Amino acid sequence: MPANNTVNYVTQFQSELMQKYARELMTAEMTTQRVRFINANTIKIPFIEMAGYKDHSRNGGFNRQAVKNDFQTFVLKFDRDVEFFVDQMDVDESNLALAAANVTNEFETQQAIPETDCYRNSKLYAEYKTAGETPDTTVLTSENVLSIIDNAMMKMTEEEVPMEGRLLYVTPVVEKMINEAKEIQRYLSLTQNSGSIRRKIVNLDGLKIKPILSSRMKTVYDFSDGCKPGASAKQINMILFHPRSILACDKHQYIKLWPEGTHTQGDGYLYQNRKYGDLFLIPNRKQGVFINAESEA
To answer: What is the count of structural domains for the chain?
Structure first.
């Protein structure tokens, strides 16, 4: 395919795309901001283990201990692409950038962003199980939901997961249970001159609560053609996590609109979109994740 007379429109839409992801991606908090690749598809994270103090001898000398410097590598595998053909008569030649922006905007809204949420949540669920953890399958109610959260938070604290930065993703159904929990004391105040009342709980003892669409919180998805719940999919009810326990990134995004005459696919414009990234649960930080889901039994 000729390389001349083509523009990589993703460079024009970069800021808009970033704003769109920050605004509409429900799992944006999972994103790892700084990732270093050692080759095209591999991320390497250093981990240092060392022994502690020993009693000092005043006869001189120090107690020498060992330092172990290991690396964990993660290989990206979620590589997706799509191509659309737009007939010449459907695009104003003087408005190529706008046409590309419109197609990109609709595709990101309808397909790319929802798929990213679905993939991340289901991949975290799978990695959680692979790491030897068992998702909690307690049936949640307004009577027990706070107890489940409190116990998970306590366990994380005992295992030295940082308190600050923890997040709780819940389905709208579980969010309603939290709002109706009998243990919560609500302080209802009338906004001056408006008479409005805010009952929604977005912060529980410093824990940020964020509702995620139930359709994006399934245990498994079928990605063979777009994204849809897998045949054996169960509902994930809540994900309590610390972002430092997760590695989630997008390595590459490519968007191009090939004008008529620069390809051999017909009389029109060829739109191409590719996205490459993945999510991983860091094995020695798995204590920073807790999942409640519908039983697979």
So the answer is: 1
Longest dimension (CA), the chain: 90
Q: Over the Cα atoms of the chain, what is R_g? A: 24
Residue 59 lies in a domain: no
68, 85, 86, 232 from 49: Cα distances, Å: 5, 54, 56, 40
Q: Which two tokens stand for residue 66?
A: 């060992």
Q: Is 181 within the bounds of a domain?
A: yes
Token reading at 71: 């690396």
Domain span holding position 110 = 10-53+67-293
Give the integer Cα–Cα distance in Å for 158 and 279.
Answer: 26
Alpha-carbon gap, residue 217 to 120, rounded angstroms:
9
Rounded CA separation 139/293 (Å)? 8
Q: What is the pLDDT of residues 248-292, one digit of tens each?
A: 988 777 878 777 777 777 777 888 888 888 999 998 899 999 999
CA distances from 4 to 7, 8, 245 (A): 9, 11, 44
**Is 14 within a domain?**
yes
**Would you give the end-to-end CA distance of the chain in angstroms?**
51
107 burial via Cβ count (<10 Å: 0-12, 13-18, 19+): middle
d(CA 129, CA 287): 12
CA dist., res. 8 & res. 18, Å (int): 16
Q: Is 4 among the domain residues?
A: no
Per-residue pLDDT tens over the stretch 36-63: 777 778 887 767 777 888 888 888 888 8
